[in-house]
Structure formats: C-alpha cells, structure tokens
Amino acid sequence: MVRTGTGLSRGFLLLAVLPLIGCDTLSSVGAGLTSAAVPAPLGAPIATPAPPTDPLAVFALAATPGTESMVTLADGTSVRARVQRQYAAASGRNCREVILGSGLQERTQLVCAGPEGSHLTPPLLRGGGI
Question: Which of 25, 30, 60, 65 lies deepest, with the highest CB count within 10 Å?
C-alpha cells in the first residue's frame, strides 16, 4: 500500500479555504446597524435629553412606584394617576407603568425616558395583564 500524501494536501486545502468560509457571513453582520444602534465613541460628550413637557411624563418620571396624584393631561382633563411599577426596558429606556383613572374607567399608560427624550407608549398587553 502506497500513500500519496493526499491526506496532507487535503489538510492544507482545508486550512486555505477555512478563512474564506465566513467572509460573506461576517460582512453582513454590520449591514443592519444604523447610527442609532452604534454607541458614541469613548470620551464623546453625552447628549442630555430635553426634560419632558407632557404633564403625565413629568409626573411619571419624577415619581416612584406607589405614588399617586391628580394630573392635568395635555388635553386639559384632570385624572388620577398612580405609578404602578418601574423597569428598564430592553431598549435601554427607563420606563414607568402608570394607571390612569379609577374603577371601570381605569387604563394603563407607559412612559419611557431615553437619550432622545420621553415617550408616552401604549401598553403591550390590553385588559390589565402584565
């Protein structure tokens, strides 16, 4: 039985081709990134968001869970507001779940603050589920 060295040449061929296998995959990794998803360089000044102007956002972002107050909404109506819970969203925003009204008129509103400012966001689950 004579060995021709094909095992050795296959090994070299594999080593030569291996780095090229992931080239297309790696080039597409950054394709979906936008400037909003890329963090600022180290040492860059951090932009301070403008303080919220919506009365509900002002109340919610300043309050802790359990805090309750009468709040005049942007449309001029007054409503009882209670901060139900506070959490860090997957987006990195600091969010508060606020219960507006009472009894059968109760509804949930999310208020989230991030680097771009505050946002009133509809709840993900309707009907009071958490």
Answer: 60
